[in-house]
Amino acid sequence: MRKFRHDYQNILISLEFFILEEDIQGLSKYYENVLQPTSKFIHENNFKLQNLGQIKIKELKSIFASKLMLAQELGINAKFETNADILKIPIDSYTLITTVGILLDNAIEELEYIGYGDLLTGIIKDDNIISIIIQNSCRSEVPQLHLLKQPGFSTKGTDRGLGLSNLHEMLSPLNHVTTETVIKDN
What we know:
Layout lengths: L1 H19 L3 H26 L8 H16 L3 E6 L10 H22 L3 E9 L2 E8 L8 H4 L14 H9 L15
Parallel strand pairs: 1-2
Antiparallel strand pairs: 2-3
Helix pairs in contact: 1-2, 3-4, 4-6
């Protein structure tokens, strides 16, 4: 809200100059070239995330919203979909949020690195099974999956490479949770 309020105030200030100068032609051009495309961008991106309202677990909704909005601010095409209201996921909150956060951070970092692609996320509920899906474009030459999960292995430099190994360590003792990583067509 603070960010929106700040941006909104700046937009009003920029309009004020045209109004005080009674420059209707300049105001019209400013609207067409600056405000209208921005409005379209905001509308389209809000539409891509509107299903977040179906997540009723506040901390989960928060992590998805903050990470996906960050991705959109970085110019990444980020979407979220779900097929049902998500009221409860049978996993402790810390593990759930940490896991989703690691996966979203990795996806966003990869998309920033390659400079193109999509981040498609969702939660699918089917009877008693809940699937959290995080799908992103990736580089054509990805290291073997077993290497990515080793502590300290990173494609991003030194002093990194703990996320996926931490994720595996947190989830492996849980009998009712499985993970699946697939690389297909980048």
